[in-house]
Design goal:
dipeptidase activity, binds ligand BES, binds manganese (II) ion, 460 residues, 34% helix, Aminopeptidase, 13 helices
Length: 460
């Protein structure tokens, strides 16, 4: 019965491919950049667009839930209280598109080239959450929904989801579910589908190093007064030793060491280092000694400078010894490391290592906790079957290096099972210029979601 039901929805999605793509393009044209207030109108516009699309797709109720920041779009269709409920989470905000000059085509004018959709948000996360809207439409319009469906699509994921946390705390009953289904991660490759079983957490700080009270002539003062940029570079480079190990005292105290057996399982995922290097145009990989690339990304914490600035960066040469230097630094965290605690360790350490000829100021930004997702839940098993149907392969469980802070919150506050069924690929270049998403990923994703609903309805 349910096989038959899914088939009707699958046919519908097959027959409406062009419309699905055109609508996604309309959404991609809205520059909903949450980090930059300049786009505030557009972010609100995207929320309205999605509300309308949910209504068109067949939800019984859709609303724009205002928050202290950008709104959350909520929608639901409850067909039978006794059936399982799938809560779809996604985000309609996108990363800034800068630097624009590195894009081959404008970031908010989507185009298809070589069967890939190019636009900011094509994969992260518009292309991915929109698959759920269309999978839902296919099931709703063919009368083949087999689970209750709720949508919660937010507009502040890329800036820390602060208001979503409040929304979740205040709406526990409304958000009640049997699984939170998220497509906002990647898989190994088109030949090797995978399901994400863990995500890293995040601590993020901005540092300011101040030397003299004003910019100085670098001849008159150079060599006699510390240059804050030089000092900042020294301080940053001391944060990791020659083995790629982070030197902040206490940083590794809670890091879980995994069994060789678990590490072996992770490393079974096909990974070709030569292809990896070629794709990135690098001659060698680098990371913490004693771990493979897969482990460095999935189960080890790390620290990176995301941006660094100060002094003169205009045309030509200006001889100046700057008064200030700045950097933005992120730390990716693994299970048991707590974001606030690690941030505090950083703050203390950075102040401790500051030489007395500079002053330092550390400002924490948003962070988030890591998450581990059960590979032994009804949802995970239903997803395995869904992939098996559509890809003819059992998906491998993987650990992703990125962060979706809200996942830990769903687990903690809603006591929900979470399923990270992402269809992105590393080459999608999320957050980078020329972000893209495979047309095939979009449609195969829709089909896999439809099949998931069928299996989850029958799941034990
Ligand atoms: N979708 C990504 C997270 C991601 C990407 C997870 C690829 C796994 C694989 C998400 O939109 C994101 O960018 N998250 C931020 C964290 C947030 C607090 C800004 C991140 O990971 O940097
Ligand atoms: Mn995302
Ligand atoms: Mn992102």
């Amino acid at each position: 019965m349910s096989e038959h039901n899914s088939q009707q929805a699958l046919n519908y999605s097959q027959e409406n491919k062009d419309d699905f793509l055109n609508e996604l393009f309309d959404l991609l044209r809205i520059p909903s950049v949450s980090a930059d207030p300049k786009f505030s109108k557009d972010v609100h516009e995207a929320a309205k667009f999605i509300k309308q699309k949910l209504i068109d797709a067949g939800v019984d109720k859709a609303e724009i839930c205002e928050t202290a920041g950008y709104p959350i779009v909520y929608g639901e269709k409850i067909i039978d209280e006794n059936l399982p409920t799938v809560l779809v989470y996604g985000h309609y905000d996108v990363q800034p598109a800068d630097p624009y000059e590195l894009w081959d085509s404008p970031p908010f004018e989507p185009v298809i080239k070589n069967d890939r959709i190019y636009a900011r948000g094509a994969c992260d996360d518009k292309g991915q959450f929109y698959m759920h809207v269309k999978a839902f439409e296919a099931m709703a319009k063919t009368g083949s929904l087999q689970c209750n469906v709720k949508f919660m699509i937010e507009g502040e994921e890329e800036v820390g989801s602060n208001n979503l946390e409040i929304f979740v705390n205040e709406n526990k009953e409304k958000l009640k579910n049997d699984v939170v289904l998220i497509s906002d991660t990647s898989m190994i490759s088109m030949d090797t589908p995978s399901i994400t079983a863990g995500l890293r957490g995040l601590s993020y700080v901005e540092v300011e190093v101040t030397g003299p009270n004003r910019d100085l002539h670098s001849g008159t003062y150079g060599g006699a007064v510390a240059n804050p940029i030089n000092v900042l570079c020294d301080m940053i480079s001391s944060l990791k030793d020659e083995n790629g190990h982070i030197t902040i005292p206490g940083f590794y105290d809670k890091v879980e060491e995994y069994s060789q057996e678990y590490r072996d399982t992770l490393n079974k995922a096909p990974f070709n280092e030569e292809d990896y290097k070629k794709e990135l145009d690098i001659d060698a990989v680098f990371g913490e000694k004693g771990y493979t690339t897969i482990e460095r990304i999935g189960i080890r914490p790390t620290l990176d400078v995301n941006g660094i600035w100060g002094g003169y960066i205009g045309e030509g040469a200006k001889t100046v010894l700057p008064s200030k230097a700045h950097a933005k630094i992120s730390m990716r965290l693994v299970p048991n490391q707590e974001s606030d605690e690690i941030t505090q360790l950083f703050v203390d350490h950075f102040n401790n290592i500051a030489p007395d000829y500079v002053k330092v100021k550390v400002t924490p930004h948003h962070g988030g906790e890591s998450a581990v997702v059960s590979t032994d839940s009804p949802a995970f098993r239903a997803a395995e079957k869904a992939f098996k149907d559509g890809w003819d392969k059992k998906p491998l469980p993987t650990r992703d290096g990125g962060s979706i802070p809200i996942v830990a919150l769903f687990e903690k506050k809603l006591k929900s099972d979470v399923l990270l069924m992402g269809f992105g690929l590393d080459k999608d270049a999320i957050h980078s210029p020329n972000e893209s998403y495979g047309v095939e990923n979009f449609f195969k994703g829709i089909d896999t979601i439809i099949r998931f609903h069928g299996h989850f309805a029958k799941a034990e």
